[in-house]
């Protein structure tokens, strides 16, 4: 039995419209956090998303809720990417994932805050997501270790600490706005994981 089309103004249409508005706010916030930092106001996000301030405040009553939603959304994409890498057999997949994590964090302040526990600690705010990401890093680390492509004394916690440290190095070098320079710094850091 097929579902009848939504009647204009019905609850079902409003729910779909609310979902679209929430998604538009998330995408706009993601872009603005990446280009302008976490200081951008909720009202500015609403203006750029083409929705009213009340729409943003209804979905995200505080800016911290929006930070978390943006970071969680992007980190879910990283976890999905990590799952795909774990399902493959590339012994260098660990370096691909870590490079992607550093690039994503360097380009987006909300993700960087989540990965470094600056504005909020992902392990507390979204423990299942944090555990999944760390578990995939550990699985890929073990695969790399077995292939001899990573030093044998590195632990998953140390690898995650290197990712967080990469953001400080990128910021210190003033490379946050240069994808090439931040990627170069990430490569230097990740080379420290390779066997001597």
Characterization of this structure:
The protein is an all-alpha fold. Helix content is 73%, strand content 0%. It contains 10 helices and no strands. The longest helix has 26 residues, at 11-36. The model is unreliable at 1-12 (pLDDT under 50). Keywords: DNA-binding, Transcription, Transcription regulation. Residues 19-78 form the HTH tetR-type domain. This is TetR/AcrR family transcriptional regulator. InterPro entries: DNA-bd_HTH_TetR-type_CS (IPR023772), Homeodomain-like_sf (IPR009057), HTH-type_TetR-like_transc_reg (IPR050109), HTH_TetR (IPR001647), Tet_transcr_reg_TetR-rel_C_sf (IPR036271), TetR_SbtR-like_C (IPR049445).
Domain unit count: 2
The CATH class of the largest domain is identified as Mainly Alpha
Coarse morphology: elongated
Rounded to the nearest angstrom, the radius of gyration is 19 Å
SSE pattern, N- to C-terminal: HHHHHHHHHH
Low-confidence stretches: 1-12
Secondary structure tally, helices: 10
The CATH homology group name of the largest domain: Tetracycline Repressor, domain 2
Estimate the strand proportion. under 5%
Profile the largest sheet: none
CATH topology term of the largest domain? Tetracycline Repressor, domain 2
* Helicity range: over 70%
Intertermini distance: 64 Å
> From the helix content, strand content and strand pairing, which structural class follows?
mainly alpha
CATH A-level architecture of the largest domain: Orthogonal Bundle
- Oligomeric nature of the chains: single chain
């Amino acid at each position: 039995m097929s579902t009848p089309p939504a009647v204009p103004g019905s609850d079902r249409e409003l729910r779909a419209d609310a979902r679209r508005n929430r998604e538009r706010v998330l995408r706009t916030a993601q872009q603005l956090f990446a280009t302008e930092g976490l200081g951008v106001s909720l009202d500015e996000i609403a203006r750029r998303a083409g929705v009213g301030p009340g729409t943003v405040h209804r979905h995200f009553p505080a800016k911290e809720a929006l930070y978390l939603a943006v970071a969680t959304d992007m980190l879910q994409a990283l976890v999905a990417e990590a799952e795909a890498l774990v399902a493959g057999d590339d012994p260098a997949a660990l370096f691909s994932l870590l490079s992607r994590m550093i690039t994503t964090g360097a380009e987006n302040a909300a993700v960087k805050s989540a990965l470094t526990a600056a504005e909020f600690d992902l392990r507390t705010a979204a423990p299942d997501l944090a555990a999944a990401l760390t578990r995939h890093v550990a699985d890929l680390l073990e695969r790399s270790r077995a292939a001899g492509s990573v030093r044998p004394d590195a632990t998953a916690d140390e690898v995650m600490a290197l990712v967080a440290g990469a953001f400080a190095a990128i910021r210190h070098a003033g490379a946050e706005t240069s994808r090439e320079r931040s990627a170069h710094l990430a490569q230097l850091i990740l080379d420290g994981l390779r066997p001597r």
